[in-house]
Amino acid sequence: MAFPLFNSIATWFLKKRIHQIELFTKYPNEVQQEVLQDLVGIAKNTKMGYRHDFSSINNYKAFAERVPIVQYEDIADEINASRLGEDNLFWPTPIKWYAKSSGTTNAKSKFIPVSVEALEDCHYKAGKDMLSLYVNNNPEAQLFSGKTLRLGGSQELFQDEKSSFGDLSAIMTDNLPLWAELNCTPSLKVSLMSEWEAKMKAIIEESAQENVTGLLGVPSWMLVLLNRLMEAQNGKTLKEIWPNVEVYFHGGVSFRPYRKQYEALFAQHQLQFYEIYNASEGFFAIQDQNHSDELLLMLDYGIFYEFIPFGEDDSAIIPLSEVELGVRYTLVITTNAGLWRYKIGDVVQFTSLSPYRIQIAGRTKHYINAFGEELAVENADRALAQAAASCGVEVLDYTAAPVYMNQKTQGRHEWMIEFNTPPKDLKEFETLLDEHLKALNSDYEAKRYKDMTMLSPKINVAQSDLFYRWLATENKLGGQHKVPRLSNDRKLMEQLLALNA
Questions:
Q1: What is the DSSP string of 146-194?
Q2: Mean pLDDT of 66-82
Q3: Between these two residues, 161 and 96, which has the higher pLDDT value?
Q4: What is the pLDDT of residues 323-380, one digit of tens each?
Q5: Is residue 242 a contact partner of residue 263, using CB atoms and an 8 Å limit?
Q6: All residues at 6 or more sequence positions from 205 whose CB lies less than 8 Å from its CB, including other chains
Q7: How far apart (Å, rounded) are the C-alpha atoms in residues 100 and 472?
């Protein structure tokens, strides 16, 4: 597909969408109310619609009063019934696919419904919008003169009696439109390989021969692939292998700990980094500006958004029109796959209200609050990046857990960090990390005051590939699986300490 004409046609086609994006940024609350009424109207004759009398809901107030806020456990039985073939429970069109969760925070598998509407009007539409925003911001882009390397999770789909399930990336690959398939590498055959190590080798063998102009995938796994690629190519640089790479679309984990490594790997390229925010439940936001860490909330994907101020109960929930800058919110979504007022478990905060732009502030379950310190992933990412920059080192991966206090000593946080090259003075790094955490989090700072509640952090240096080995033991190798950054218990930490011994 290395045709300049194809690049010109694809760019022209994608830019046509920009006008519609500008429309919902200009009238965001009106668009969201329209989305809500459409969802309620479409589902009024489902079991869910009859239960809450959707046919008479004509405003947000009535919707909020009648429909309860739920978590997965509250709707698991209904989802299982749907998987067994019972239709019209929470969405009128039959649900053919279920995205199985990776179990990052919970060993229990979750099966998230993926409707035809969600696939077409949310996930695939977002994929086109990601490209639209990039080419609109970069008029000289030649992205479609080559191929985009996609690195998803396990592409294996499993069949039960009435439906299919697997990673969202497997569902999307299995139903990929022709235009997307033509512009991607590796081939469908390689993408559908289930054994991760063999798949990585096949991706390298196939994609090394392509004119790769873009990258798409989770930063931690993409980094593994790129390093193995250079090894397989006898130490060639990425500029020698793929001279025309111009953009990396990333999501899934915070990019902050990985940015310097990517900048070093692509030092000879003028590479753009574009962040996306998607999940099995939907596609929510896309970076819409070059050189930005803010994401535009996408409002016309068949998703209605609500927000609960982090730490408050469900009664404090508000619609998009009432959010404020800088406040951390638990995200609640209603979707065109039949999720109604569903707490996804993510925490976001707004950086702009016109248009609505957000940053991902972490997970409701990914934090440490053993001593009232309320340490969020966002704090940990920033503090680690700052300490690493001061010491001239790079952090490859990390996790942290509490060491609970006892009668003899105070509590503290224990970290397991894999460095590219460990700091020369580990105590200095510990001190810098502690100071940056204090500066970023007043609750942490208060608990660290004169070592009264918490001692300074303890850092363990992880052996090379420790986290990779842990993921392998948990059967979690693949693009959608992630190491939990922060935990309130020591289960993961004790496993890592044993592996690291």
A1: SEEEEE-S----EE-SS-EEE-HHHHHHHT--HHHHHTEES-HHHHT--
A2: 94
A3: 96
A4: 999 999 999 999 999 999 999 988 999 999 999 999 988 776 677 877 778 788 888 9
A5: no
A6: 232
A7: 18
Question: Phi and psi for 307 in degrees, rounded to 5?
Answer: -145, 135
Has residue 202 got a pLDDT over 90?
yes
Residue carrying structure tokens 């590219």: 420
Neighbour count for residue 473 (Cβ, 10 Å): 10
User: What confidence category does residue 103 fall into, taking pLDDT thresholds of 50, 70 and 90?
Assistant: very low
Distance CA 134, CA 131 (A): 5
Taking phi first (over 0 means left), then psi (-120 to 50 degrees means alpha), and beta for anything else, what does residue 450 get?
left
Q: CB under 8 Å to 231, separation ≥6 — which residues?
A: none
Classified as helix, coil or strand, 400 is: strand
Measured CA to CA, the distance from residue 319 to residue 29 in angstroms comes to 9
Q: Where are the domains of the chain?
A: 4-16+118-163+177-286, 367-500
- Which amino acid, one-letter code, is at 87? D
pTM of the model: 0.80
Strand partners, 70: 342
Q: How far apart are CA 492 and CA 306, in angstroms?
A: 32
Which tokens go with 389?
A: 């920059």
CA–CA separation, 150 and 438 (whole Å): 38
Sign of CA dihedral 152, 153, 157, 161: negative
Residue 210 has pLDDT above 90, yes or no: yes
What is the pLDDT averaged over residues 153-157? 65
CATH of 4-16+118-163+177-286, one of 3.40.50, 3.10.450, 2.60.40, 1.10.3470: 3.40.50
Strands 212-217 and 247-250: parallel
| Cα–Cα nearest to 157, from 181, 174, 177 | 174
CATH class of the domain comprising 367-500: alpha beta
pLDDT tens string 284-308: 999 999 999 999 999 999 999 999 9
- Three-class DSSP labels, 305-342: EEEEECCCCHHHCEEHHHCCECCEEEEEEEECCCCCCE
